[in-house]
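Still learning. Any example?
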Amino acid sequence: MTESAVGLPENEDVVDISAASLPPLALRVARGVFTGPTARVSDGMYARIVSGRAHRERFSVHLEKGAVVDTDTYFGRFAASYFQRWTTVSEVKVSCSYRAAGRARARLVASDSGGNTRAVQTLDIDGEGTCSLTTRLDSFLDGGSLWVEFTAIDGALTVADLEWTVPAPQQIRPVAIAICTFNRADDCAATLAAIADDTELSKTVDAVYVVDQGNDHVSDRPLFSRVAADLGSKLHYLRQANLGGAGGFTRGLFEISAADDHANVILMDDDILCEPESILRMNAFANVTKEPMLVGAQMLYLMNPDRLHVGAEEADLSKLKAGRWAAGSRHNANMLKKRQDKRVDAGYNAWWSCLIPAEAIAEIGLPLPMFFQWDDIEYGIRSRAAGFVTATLPNAGVWHADFHWKDRDDWAKYFSIRNSLITAALHSDFDTKSLAKLMTREITQYLVSMQYGLAYTMIRGIEDFLAGPDILRDGGQAVLKAIREERKNFPETINHPASDIPGIDDAAMVVRQAGFQPRKDRLDLVLAKRVLNQWTGRTRHEIASIPAAEAHWWHVSLFDTAVVTDAAQTGVRVRRRDRVKAKELAERTAKLMKRFTAEGNAAQQQFRRAVPELTSRENWSRLYELDDDKR
C-alpha cells in the first residue's frame, strides 16, 4: 500500500491519522461534531442545548447570549475509560477556536463508572482565539467519560474546530477500508460518498477497497463515478463471484494484508448509514493501544436512529447464541436519555464496522469460508484466543438495519446453525449431549409452530456440520442455491401480500393476541403438551391472525391455521398444521440427534485440523480464482 502524501495542517503540532513523513507531536483522536450526517439523525446525539438558543453546523456551534451547550452525548463524549484501560495515553487535551462577544466560559467535565459527574477544569474566555483544557487519564479505569460545556455569558459565542488530541506514537499506521457489497449499489455508493466527502477524514485513509459480488454493480451508479474521481488512486474496485459476507470481507483482508503488512483494516457493511467520524476514532484509538487489538464501532438502529443495539457483544457457545450483551452494557437503549459510563469488555465486534490490525491477520490467518453469519464472531473469538482482544468504542457508531425487523424464517437459518456449530466446535468444550437437547427443543418449537421449512432448514445445517470441513470447500455457493430450492417445498415459507392470501377468507380470520408466557420452569411441559395436542388434533380450528410480536411458539401452536405477519411487515405467512410433515421431520430429528451425539466430537476434530488450510491465503486464492502470482 502506498503512503498518502498528506501535508501538515495549519497547526503543525496536530496531524490527521496518515502516513505523514514527519512524526506528529499530537494525534487527533476525535473531532467535535455538532450535527449528524443526515437530518434523520437527532442532533441530540452530538450536542445538547442545555438552555437558551444555539445554532449548529457540522463542526461548529453558535450560542446566543445566555445559552449553554455541552457534548454530554453519544458522539460528544470522549471515552476516557477505554483510553486509560487499553492505550499508552496518560493525558488528553481538548481544544477549539472561539469568537466571543463578551465573557464566556469553557468547562471540562467528567463522569465515573456510576454516572456521577465532576468538573475537571474551567476556563473563562473572551474575544477571539483558541483555548485548550487538559486532564490526566488516571481515574477512569472502571468507567467514565469526558465532555465539554460552553456558556455564552455576556454575549454570543461561536465554537469551532473542536478536537481531542493525545501524544502521538512514534509511528502512525496506514489504514485501509474494505466494503463488501451484494446488489446494494445505491447504499454502497452512499457509504463511499460519506467517506470521500469528509475531506479531513479521507486524507487519513490510505486505501478504500470495494468488493462487489452482485450483478447490480456499484460502478454503474453516477455517484460512484464522482466518488472515484474524489478518491483517485486510493479506490480499488474488485468484482468477484458471490462468496457471501465472509468471502467479500476476506477479499479486503486478503488484498490489504498483501499490500502492507503493518496496516489497520477497517471492515464496513455496504448498507450502513456511515458516520465518518467513527472511522477516525476507531483508527486513532488503534494507533495508541498498548498491543495490537481489534477495535469496533457500535451498531445504532437505522430505523430508530437514537437507539443503541448493544454496547458490547459476546457469544454463549454452550447455547449457540451470539449477540448476547456483555455484562454492564446497554442494549436497545435510547441514547438521548441513557449514557454509557461503565467500561464494558467485548467478546467480539460484528463487521458492520470493525478494525483488524495486520498482526492479527499474520498470526491467525484469514476468516473461515463460512459464506454468511458467524464468520465475524468466529474470527473475533479466534483473535482473542491468540491474544488480540476487542474493544467496542462507546462514542463510535454506525447505523445498521434493525435486527428485529428481519424475519427469522429464512434460508439464513441454515448458515446460522451450521456456522454456530463450527464456531462452538473450534472454541468450546462442545458437549454434544447438551447441544443435542438444545437443538431438539428448538426444532420441536418450530414444528409445533407449523414452521416446517424452518425446522428442515435447521436440520440441513446440522447434517452438513456432521459432513465435515468439505462443506466449506466452495465457499458456500452450492449450498446457498440448494437450500433456497429445497425450502420451496414448504408453503409456509412464502411471504404473501396481506391483500391476497391464498385460501384464506378475510372475514374468517380472527386476530388472536398471545396470553401470558409460560413460566420458564414449565416451558418443556408446555412444549410436550403442544406436541400431543397437535398430534391428536386438539387444536383450535379457527383461522388465527397473529401479529409478528405475538407469534410465540406456545401461542401459534394452539391453532390449526395461523396467518402470521412477517417481522419485516411486508406481508404474511400462512402456517397450516400438517401431521405428515411433522412426523417425518420429528423422526428425522430424532435420528439426527442420535447421530450428532455419537459423531459430533469427531466432526469437531475434523474442523480443528482443517482450520490452517481453510484460512490460508492459498485456499482463498483458489476460491477467488486468482493466478498463482497473485497469491
Summary: The mean pLDDT is 94. The first helix runs from residue 80 to 86. The chain has three domains: 26-167, 175-405, 412-583.
